[in-house]
Amino acid sequence: MIIDGKQISSQILEDLKKRVEKLKEKGVTPTMAIVLIGDQKASAIYVRQKELKANIVGIDPKIFRFDETVTNDEIEALVKKLSKDPKIHGVILQRPAPPQIRVEEIEEFISPVKEVDGFGINSIYPVPVAAATLKMIENAYDNLNTDKPFIDWLKAKRVVVIGKGETGGKTIINLLRKNGVEPFIVDSKTENREARIKEGDIVISAVGKSGVVTKDNLKKGAILVGVGIYSDENGKSRGDYDETEIADIAEFYSPTPGGVGPVNVSMLMENVVKACENLSK
Fold this sequence. Notes:
By secondary structure, the chain is of the alpha/beta class. It contains 10 helices and 10 strands. The mean pLDDT is 95.
């Protein structure tokens, strides 16, 4: 059964619309500031998706664009200013940034209640892609008709995370651990890698390469969530597995595109709305 990210995203956005309407009744419009440096196509597309989702919900997106020659001091000064601005509720320094921009250092200047991307060490929000991954798994759980609470159910499962990249697998691993779930981590150095993947009741693949999960290394009845993404020779977005190959093996699986991606952006919008609610109390 497909875990439909587009449908999950739509449900999240509908809920957020109602929360934004309540904020606007109080005279407050949730506003997020995105600092975009350079002209990387992938970043530009992702920022555009953020703008579109923000407009759907009623969030005001403000985009600050710079070319790659901008200095670290200039970006630091802007971020400090945005963090102090009472009309800005979320501040995002879009990754990746040019090498002269010390992203992690600059993110420390963002107020924890405004650090909606979740990467800052003081942020109070989950990284959206990690929250989206759990939301996908929860959707599969909802279709199992079990009485056990979601987190208790998840703790009883063998969860395998393939890949531990800074912006993908690592954030998912951290969020699972925060919820009391200790995943088995598979990377290029893992011994008996294929067998370890096949032990997973829930497999989260965050690599961005074809053929990471196959019909031979996936457990029958597993829940499979694909986070990794890459572009094929025709420029089309592809995931870590061939959906036609694993469709009869996985009980639930997410597609690419239309899986984690839409939910990822929606979870960012949720962080922005939460930030606005927190700052408006």
